[in-house]
Amino acid sequence: GGNRSGLYRVQDTDGDDQFDQVTLLKKIDGKGEHGPHAVVLAPDGKSIYFCAGNHSNLIDVETSLVPQTWQEDQLLTRMWDAGGHAVGKMAPGGWIAKTDPEGKDYELVSIGFRNQYDLAFNAEGELFTYDADMEWDVGSPWYRPTRVCHVTPGSEFGWRSGTGKWPEYYPDSVGSVVDIGPGSPTGIVFGTGARFPAKYQRALFIADWSYGKIYAVHMEPQGATYRATYEQMIAASPLPVTDMVVNPVDGALYFAIGGRGTQSGLYRVTYQGSEATSPIERRATVPAERTLRRELEATLGNQSPASRDLALKRIAHPDRRVRFSARVALEQYPVAEWQEDALGLEDPHSVIQTAIALTRTADKGLQSQIVDHLAKLDMQALPVAEQLDAVRAYALALIRMGQPSPELARRVLEEVDALYPATDPRLNRELCQLLVYLEAPQVAQRTVALLANAATQEEEIAYVLALRELRSGWNAATREAYFKWFRDASLLSGGHSFSRFLVNIRNDAIGTLTAEEKASLGELLTAQPVGQVSTLPPRKFVKKWTVNELLPIVEQGLTGRDYQRGRRLFTQGACFKCHRFAGQGGIVGPDLTGVAGRFNTRNLLESMIEPNKVISDQYQSTQFALDSGKSVIGRIVNAAGDRLMVMTDMMNPDKLATVLRDEIEVMKPSSVSLMPSGLLDTYQEDEILDLMAFLKSRGDPQHEVYQSAAVPRKPNVLLVSIDDLNDWVGVLGGHPQAKTPHIDALAGRGTLFTNAHCQAPVCTPSRASMVTSRLPSSTQLYFLQPHLRASAVVKHATTLAEYFAEHGYDTVGVGKIYGGQEPRYFQEYGGSFGGFGPRPKTKLSHPQGHPLWDWGAHPESDGDMPDTKITNWAIEKLHTLGDEPFLLSVGFYRPHVPMYAPKAWFQQHPRESITLPRVLLNDRGDLSQYARDLTDGFPAPRHHEIVGAGEWSHAVQAYLASCTFVDHCVGRLLDALAASKHADNTMVVLYSDHGWHLGEKQRWAKRSLWEDATRVPLVIASPGGQVARCARPVGLIDVFPTLADLCGLPADSSWEGQSLKPLLGQADLPWDRPAITTFGPNNHAVRSTDWRFIRYADGSEELYDHREDPHEWHNLAGNPSYTKILEEHARWLPKTNLPAMMEVESYGMKAYREAEAGRLKRAKQLGN
After folding, report:
1. Can you spell out the DSSP letters for 285-305?
2. What's the CATH code of the domain at 918?
3. β-strands 997-998, 1004-1005 pairing
């Protein structure tokens, strides 16, 4: 009841099983939903750990494992949340502390959380928590999803208010174990003691209050910390889970629901099955890195010269957590004791970490020496992860030690300026901030160019946020491009504060302009604010509805509703002005997308009819009584200096009132909700049903509330992508020694397309074409870089995975699918697991050239291969996917170079009996100079080099071994599907992104318009589907429309591919459409049933008759007898040829540039 916020001891003093004595042990200055939370007992029973969210001031502590030197550490000016949340809240944010059982001595353990609700120790004594996201930040570069954190002594997790949240890669913080996504974390508990299978006894169960879910997080040791995957265990709508516990008596998991006035309840979860549930043993071995980390943590508060020296020694360790713990341990000593030793270190990790330690502890006069210390680094040669660390160290030297002298600023620029722009967007973000701070030459021009080609909206916003403070170095063109971005940003979407943040960024940027600049930019500065909603006429009164009156009507009437009318009613009620829903709307009230997961029907009706009944402190306004007698009610959005800026009109968030602090007599939370009463009183009964259905649907037009009767269950899709697999597949006959029994078996129960081709002979554009169903000539994507979202044409296109998500599918991906940035496209992404690794310390067979070009037997075990780990993750996911239709995309990395596979796979293809591809020595003699230029100049070795080194048979052996290995992975995946509950309702589509030369045409690798580079395996197999071999020419561009057609989803007019459904099982149907492959603007191949026609940008042509010339040795284009064939094929050449985006250098561009330069030179010589 009236107890103050704090840590209490509650006792039963007389043994009657009733608590009768309450003792306040420690007052905690914090309350509400971001106040104090969990209390847990340490495994040894000697300490009590407790935590508090970021609205709780830190308690007084006797000791601290965290160095008490925390600051905001923002290089550029932080923007407070545009919706007014946590304005003025400073570091350390949410914290974790511990005390003795008597509550006498307190020690700070960890900081930098947003709102961690609960704590849990695993069986190995390691502490974990589940931290909240700031859902209003969704869509911004500073958004951090809900995440599971491994809480080690002295750790910092980097929460800062507003735009100030630290990225997870900052070296002065520690990252998460696994990111979950949007949600509201509540209780967590390990499965220790549960009568569950072993996997779940080790799992961490975490609760999400908003979306009504319980996840099981499965961790494996990774160095000094853990890596993890997660699965959805329990979900319902609504299911507002608050806390969980494992009962040691019956071994069941119990969880409670409730909160914010919702219905409370208690549930019990038991295991029903045949797996063993006996208690598991603790892991037998402890990783050496964890031992090192604990050794360093044991020195905190126990200072000695030996411990100091240990910290300096371990600060160079390759494990991030060990390095972090070493730096924390070092910082507890007087800087004079270790400064000289630190400045003498040379190892990159040592230099970076000691520089960070010095910026946090040393006198400001050391700034120049710290910069000199960092200048030891060869920034260009460092891996990206270390470049990121080094740039952060430079930034901290400026943040902590003040504005540098012009000379010192010049020295910093000498070290970092040449890095910008980089290929890694994270590095670009950090470099951009540093260079803006230093007002580097041309930083505006370089950043605006990056802005125009950014792959994601998060990258774009990071650039505009940094540039808003830059006053010098602009020209008219870059200023105009910068402000045009805001005009066009209405296509972007994000969380609750998103649109207002964009308005504030623009306003800050306008504030840096001179009067002349403002005049020249004109109406660009006065355009309608981003995200503004038009005013709608008021609705007429219908009747005064009550909860009890509407409850039975709604509970019985939510079938066959009208989605479009529900959305229109949501708009007419002005709901979008305050609330976000499915990525659209205002920034004042809570995001309602997941409201059906946390509120039942009665709760929803009550919140609309009686909004004052329950008001969350997260959305509560403040009432100010001023000494003038005036009253102001609203939300504080800025608290700067002697005044408060208060949003008083929720329908017009730009309208702010100024309240002077010294004029405030009384300031208290308002008891009146910002949401007006009586909103439903203007709706008819049928309209209320459509509005409630809209809220229940979470914005999904295919939700069950819109189904009038039972509808057929949508099929699941297993999409299997293989990297660089040509036609060396048993059933395709590309090589007589190919062993791919599992792919062959799949083809034997579906339709095998024997004349399938990619649309680009390079990974990124080929995959972009497949997932957008657009030709490269329409997407502007021709080469390895840039990625999909860099093209203005398809920047906002709905890709395959996003399309399926929009139509009610759970979309899950793992491995290489899009060729980069996979997590942004899937609802859940499992990772790349090392991608093209693991690699030996030195190359095995091809010591020169690109680091990926190598082959040989490596590593020792299948278990070390990324594709094995990808398969394991996908198999586990198959077992946990529920009854909702799903798209599971699995992308394998082999046989892409390096062509490594364990020795056992090489033994299946003995080198001494390898059959080499057939190669015609003068094969390229009938090609144009342009064709030769375009297909040379790549990082792949030359054919004569491989032959001369005696490595041809070895490389072919490696490719065959890699193909057989990846086929084995495919087989395991298909076997798991067959054994799962999804087997009878899942179609399988298997493909490769493009082909691969292994000497043919005297070439290696891809990047050509010939058969070896374009032909790919493509199999579509559905349960009960017909079996066929189809020789019709088809492309990967057709996969997207085909899947939509097979799943009963509507087609999109932007697709350039077409559905292959008519050909499934009916391979002889008429089909007059060829397959088109493109490599650079105006370079196209047209593959029909019998012919390959190629035309290059210089007009030169090739024609091959595949009935007589399957190896494409004889170019017939110059023979007049084939003029008609040439004309028939030329009519299929793309009419649109958008220019290539050449701003980001990548493989392929060099050869294209040289070919184009040669073409232009020859044309000039001819006088054309």
Report:
1. ---HHHHHHHHHHTTTT---H
2. 3.40.720.10
3. antiparallel
Question: Which pLDDT tens digit goes with each residue over 81-140?
Answer: 988 889 999 999 999 999 999 999 999 999 999 999 999 999 999 999 999 999 889 889
Q: Is residue 747 part of a domain?
A: yes
Domain end: 158, 183, 208, which one?
183
**Radius of gyration, CA atoms only, the chain:** 32
Task: Indicate whether 562 and 466 sit together in one domain.
Answer: no
Least confident of 225-239, 523-537, 705-719, 763-777: 523-537
Helix (H, G, I), strand (E, B) or coil at 327: helix
State the pLDDT at residue 564: 79
Tokens of 1120: 């007049």
Q: Are residues 465 and 513 in the same domain?
A: yes
Q: What is the DSSP letter of 525?
A: G
Cβ–Cβ < 8 Å for 893, 723: yes
- Tally of residues, the chain: 1168
Looking at the domain assignment, is residue 1084 inside a domain?
Answer: no
783 to each of 109, 832, 929, how far by Cα in Å?
Answer: 49, 22, 21
Higher pLDDT, 709 or 1044: 1044
Dist. CA 763–CA 766, nearest whole Å: 5
Q: Is the peptide bond before 101 cis (omega within 30 degrees of 0)?
A: no
Q: Are residues 612 and 701 in the same domain?
A: yes
Whether the per-residue pLDDT at 347 is higher than 60: the answer is yes
Q: Is the pLDDT of residue 535 over 50?
A: no
Q: Are residues 140 and 262 located together in one domain of the fold? A: no
- CA end-to-end span of the chain: 90
Retrieve residue 689's tokens. 């049903």
Would you call the peptide bond into 318 cis, given omega within 30 degrees of 0 as the criterion?
no
pLDDT for 994 beyond 70? yes
Residues contacting residue 733 through CB under 8 Å, at least 6 positions apart: 727
Cα 1095 to Cα 31, 499, 725, 932, 1056: the distances in Å are 71, 47, 25, 13, 21
Nearest to 903 by CA among 851, 964, 854: 964
Give yes or no for residue 597 having a pLDDT over 70: no
Do 859 and 982 reside in the same domain of the chain? yes
Give 130-185 pLDDT, tens digit per residue: 999 998 898 899 999 999 999 999 999 999 999 999 999 999 999 999 999 888 99
Are 912 and 1037 within one domain? Answer: yes
> Which residues, listed in sequence order, are joined to residue 185 by a DSSP beta bridge?
208
Q: Which two tokens stand for residue 900?
A: 């490594």
- Cα–Cα distance for residue pair 645/657, rounded to 1 Å: 6
Range 1159-1162, long-range pairs (CB < 8 A, 24+ positions): 1159/930, 1159/1097, 1159/1098, 1162/929, 1162/1098
CATH (domain of 566): 1.10.760.10
Is the four-CA dihedral 544, 540, 582, 563 of positive or negative sign?
positive
Element (H, E) at 1084: strand 1084-1087
Is residue 1109 included in any domain, yes or no? no
Mean pLDDT, rounded, for 811-835: 91
Q: Which residue range forms the structural domain that includes residue 456?
A: 420-532
The one-letter amino acid code at 592 reads: L
Same domain for 117 and 163?
yes
Q: Assess whether pLDDT exceeds 90 at residue 560.
A: no
872, 856: one domain: yes
CB of 109 within 8 A of CB of 158?
no
Average pLDDT of the chain to the nearest whole number: 91
3-state helix, strand, coil in the chain (%, to 5): 35, 20, 45
Q: Which of 213, 246, 281 is the last residue of a domain?
A: 281
Inside any domain, residue 336: no
Q: What is the pTM of this model?
A: 0.56
Q: How many domains does the chain have?
A: 6
